[in-house]
Amino acid sequence: MGHHCCSKQKVKRGLWSPEEDEKLVTHITLHGHGSWSSIPKLAGLQRCGKSCRLRWINYLRPDLKRGTFTEEEERTIVEVHRILGNRWAQIAKHLPGRTDNEVKNFWNSCIKKKLLAQGFDPNTHNLLSSHQKKSKTNTSNASKTPNHHHHHRFLSNSSSLVFSSSDDLNQPQTSIIPNNNDIELQESTINFECSNNTANYAQIDYNNNNNNNNSGPFSAEFSTQFLASSTSMNMSDNSILLPNNNNNNNTEVSNLCGYVFDKTSIWSTTGGGMMEPPMQVLPQPQDEAIGGDQNFDAALLNMLSFNNYGFEDYPTNTNDTIIPSSGIMYDDMDQIAWLQGINNFHQSNSL
DNA sequence: AAGACCTGCAACCGCTTCGTC
DNA sequence: CGACGAAGCGGTTGCAGGTCT
Predict the structure, then answer these.
(1) Nucleotide lying nearest to A11, CA to C1' measure
(2) Fewer CB under 10 Å: which end of chain A, C or N?
(3) Does the residue A102 lie in any domain?
C-alpha cells in the first residue's frame, strides 16, 4: 500500500536518522513549517509530509519536555482521563511539553497496569468486580499488590459514586452507591473511622426531608482532615453538623468542607467551623462532578456566572467563593472547570 | 551463550475534522 | 452548501533493546 499523501515519490519510512532530523529542524527553524505536504521537497527529505509533521510534533519541537513523567503529571493524566477517556490530545493539553503520543504510550505501558493492579478498570476508573479483576489482571503482568495509599473517587455513567478509602480507615472499602432514585438511608448519622490528622472522606447519600425545591436526594462528600479518631456526621434538613471528637465541641471544626450534589445540581458548603447550609453553585442539569482530595487546600467557586467551564474563562472577580475543597468539575462539553488543588487551579487559570 | 519473550516507544495508517474555495 | 486538500487524532504496528529461560 502506498502513501496517499505522497504516492508519487519514493518515501523513506521507519526511524529518522540524525541527518534527517537536522534537515527538518533547520528548515522549520528558518522558514516555519508552512504546509506540511511541501516540507519534504523544501527540506530535501524523502519523507512524506505527514511523517515530517509527526516527527516535528512528537520529537523535534523545542518546547518538548521529554524524560520520565513526574508523579504530578501522572496524577493529572489519571484525573483527566477519568473524565475525557482516551482523548490523548486533550489530555496532553494539561501537560505542558508533553505530546498526545507520549501520554498515550505512558498510559498504555504504565498507568493502565497500575490501575489494574490497584483493582480499577482503566477504562471506567471504577472498581473492578472480583471476576473482572481475575480476567483483567490475568492478562497483564501488573503487580498483584494493591496500592493502599491513594484515595479514589469515581463517578459512573449513572452518577453512582464509589468510595474507595485508604488503609487509614478501619473499613478499607466503603461503597455507597446511589441507584437511579438514590438511596434513602434509614439513619441520618453515618459513622466512620479515620486516623489523626489524616484526610479521609465519606460519601453519603441521603434524602433530605425538607420540602422546599432545593431538597431531595443528595450525594454528599465531606472531608474530615482535622478530625481525629471516630467521627460522626449528622445531617438534618439542609445543614450538616460535624462534631470534633477531640474536644467534643461541635462548633470548632476547622477545614471541613465539601460539596453536595444530586443529579441536577452541585451545592457547595463552606469550610471552617460549622457547615453552612449547602449553597447551590452549579445548576446545569448536564453537569457532573468529582470532588474531594486529600490535600483539601483548594478551590473555587461561584459557578453561577461561570458559563464556559474552561480555565481560561474562569471569572476571577471578588464574588467568587473560594472553598477549601478540591476536585474536578466538568460540563457536558468535557471542559474541566477546576482541578484539585488551589495551586493547580491558579496555574491553570493563568494559562 | 543464545534464542524466546517482553517492553517501551517512535512511527505508521486510516479515519475524522477543519479550512478554504 | 459540497468538494477537496491539509491537519489532527487515536488505534495499532514494528523494532530496538532489555530480560528471561
Answers:
(1) B12
(2) N
(3) yes
Length of chain A: 351
Residue A156 sits in the same domain as residue A201 = yes
CA atoms of A187 and A305, how far apart (whole Å): 36
Nearest-angstrom CA–CA distance, A104 and A88: 6
CA closest to B6 C1', residue: A141
Q: For A120-141, what is each residue's pLDDT tens digit?
A: 778 877 666 555 555 554 443 3
Nearby residues of A128 by Cβ (< 8 Å), 6 or more positions away: A116, A119, A120, A121, A136
C-alpha cell at A18: 540524525
Q: Which domain CATH number covers A47?
A: 1.10.10
Question: Which tens digits make up the pLDDT trace of A191-221?
Answer: 222 222 222 233 222 222 222 222 222 223 3
Q: Which residues have CB under 7 A from strand C?
A: A 5, 14-15, 33-37, 49-50, 53-54, 57, 86-90, 100-101, 104-105, 108
All cell numbers assigned to A270: 463552606
pLDDT exceeds 80 at position A39: yes
Which of A65, A66, A60 is CA-nearest to residue A24? A60
pTM across the whole model: 0.51
- What is the predicted pLDDT for the residue at A189? 25
